[in-house]
Amino acid sequence: MSQYRICAILPTRNRKALLQECIRALKAQTHPVAHIIVVDNASTDGSAELAAREGAEVVQFERNLGGAAGFHEGISRAYRGGYDWVWIMDDDTIPQPNALAELLKAVPRLERLGHPPAVLASRVLWQDGSVHPMNWPWPNPFPYRRFRAARRMGYVPVRWAAFSSVLVARWAIHKYGLPHRDYFVRTDDLEYTGRILRREAGYLVPKSLAVHKTPTKYTPASAHPERFYYEVRNRIWVMRSRSFGVLGKAALGAHIMGGTLAYLAKNRPALGLRVVWKGLVDGLATDPDHRTTVPPHLSELGRSAG
User: Fold this and answer.
1) ω before 215 within 30° of 0 (cis)?
2) 283 contacts 182 by C-beta, under 8 angstroms
3) Which one of 24, 176, 205, 207 has the largest count of C-beta atoms within 10 Å of its C-beta?
């Protein structure tokens, strides 16, 4: 386990206190993190300066390009740096001291199943110790023999995992590339880990714990209009991609329909329908990294009534 060189990736924007807590949690890991890259999305609160003082490499964007561009840039730099694994997380995720060690401990055990792990995810809880609804990966029962063997070891095979605390192997980045920059926020992790895990093996490691310090246990339906636009557009992009097969896309379609109905129930009908329609049209008419439309802003969409 000690031979692995790990680079952590943290996109951030105007959350200096949480960013500092996250960086210090990374520096306190029982398995050392070799390098930390903070990608700053034009913060105005001194986040970039704070990260530099804490010893991180800082990449500064001149304007807010979103978390997706931050993950793209950070993973690209980590790959060029030759690190064995890239540890991807949000700046408000606080890993427990042994979180990385537990992820890496799983590698040689899972390799004995005959399929080396490409993705390893922590169990991410909310501040009260309950499961955060945005961070629970999809279990993957296929093939069942591998699922059963992994469960006996204490791991759960997964079909995708959130970027809240996830390790991605260098060889998987080489084989499957980088996340799309143009997702901005939401579902970039779904597409990217789904892309890798359509053919490779990934696992939830329950003993690797992290706390996601979001203000609430939000769901897609509770998003404000700007973010729900991305939820719709980006899920359409995912459904048009090759990251999932027929069954996966059917599940994604059912999920977005349920989330859309819940969102519409919480917002003024005219506003809600306008947001959903724009996301649907842009999701069908454009492609990530070849986008031809300008993302909407709250000034266009109005504000949520709920």
Assistant:
1) no
2) no
3) 205
Average pLDDT of 61-90?
Answer: 97
| Spatial separation of the C-alpha atoms in residues 156 and 159, rounded to whole Å | 10
* Local structure of 133: helix, strand or coil: coil
Q: Return d(Cα 102, Cα 100) in angstroms, integer.
A: 5
- Give the separation between CA 110 and CA 202, rounded to whole angstroms: 10
Instruction: Give the 3-state secondary structure of residue 204.
Output: strand
pTM greater than the 0.90 cutoff: yes
Per DSSP, the three-state class of 35 is strand
Mean pLDDT over residues 273-301, rounded? 75
Mean predicted confidence (pLDDT) in 202-222:
93
- Predicted local confidence at residue 2, as pLDDT: 62
Mean pLDDT of the chain: 92
Contact (Cβ atoms closer than 8 angstroms) between residue 210 and residue 95: yes
* Rounded Cα gap, residues 138 and 235, in angstroms: 15
Q: Is the pLDDT of residue 219 over 80?
A: yes
CA distances from 156 to 44, 113, 146, 191, 229 (A): 40, 13, 10, 20, 32
Q: Which two tokens stand for residue 12?
A: 């951030």
H helix intervals, the chain = 16-27, 47-53, 66-80, 99-111, 144-153, 170-176, 188-197, 225-240, 246-266, 269-285, 298-301
Q: Are 259 and 185 in contact (CB under 8 A)?
A: no
What percent of the chain lies above the pLDDT cut of 70? 94
| 8 close to 37: Cβ distance less than 8 angstroms | yes
Which of 78-92, 200-214, 284-298 shows the lowest per-residue confidence on average (mean pLDDT)?
Answer: 284-298
